[in-house]
Write a structure and sequence with these properties.
By secondary structure, the chain is mainly α. The protein has helices at 4-38, 48-64, 111-115, 122-135, 141-144, 152-158, 172-179, and strands at 104-105, 162-163.
């Protein structure tokens, strides 16, 4: 005859065996589903390749679909689609911009003239003039990189629009002395 303690031990062991079998059955079903999903579409599986084909078809149909019109436009302005073609900036200058083929001498240009250059705004033009007055004339495009805000890309873009006269700009003290017809301080 078994004691109550032995019966409890047997019950725990049987329960663990049943639980293990259930976990194993569920795991096998999941594994089977994953294998079916991974089969190529050619073998009759509807898995990964089928899903990929459906995604590609959806993307292709979205690319072929016409784009919806713009939702809103500013009052008084036509939508961009009706505004007409954009001007070719290589032959038509925007107001205050510089055309290709023109050049600005950065060693003698004013702030306003420097602002006509691409990617140069009022603050950067002012820094260019300040650097020129503090350090003398720019010798080449690489000297433009000394100005805070002009990196290699901007210097390359500016190279076709600027010239360098090599003329040394006087410092502020020398400029004020020359306007008074007084010799510069030694």
């Amino acid at each position: 005859m078994t004691t109550p303690a032995e019966r409890r031990v047997w019950a725990v062991l049987v329960g663990m065996a049943l639980l293990g079998a259930a976990v194993r059955w569920v795991g096998l079903r999941r594994l089977e589903a994953a294998l079916v999903a991974a089969q190529p579409a050619a073998e009759g599986g509807r898995g990964a390749q089928g899903a990929l084909d459906r995604q590609q078809a959806a993307v292709d149909s979205a690319r072929r679909a016409p784009r919806p019109p713009a939702r809103r436009s500013r009052p008084g302005r036509p939508p961009k689609a009706l505004a007409g073609p954009r001007p070719d900036t290589s032959t038509h200058a925007l107001p205050g911009s510089i055309l290709k083929g023109e050049a600005v001498d950065v060693n003698s240009a004013t702030v306003t003239e420097l602002e006509r250059l691409p990617r140069i705004g009022p603050a950067l033009a002012q820094r260019m003039v300040a650097w020129r007055e503090a350090h003398g004339s720019f010798q080449g495009p690489e000297d433009l990189r000394h100005v805070r805000g002009i990196g290699p890309a901007t210097a390359r873009q500016l190279a076709e629009f600027v010239t360098f006269s090599g003329r040394r700009r006087p410092f502020s003290r020398e400029a004020s002395a020359s306007t008074l017809d007084v010799p510069p301080p030694a």
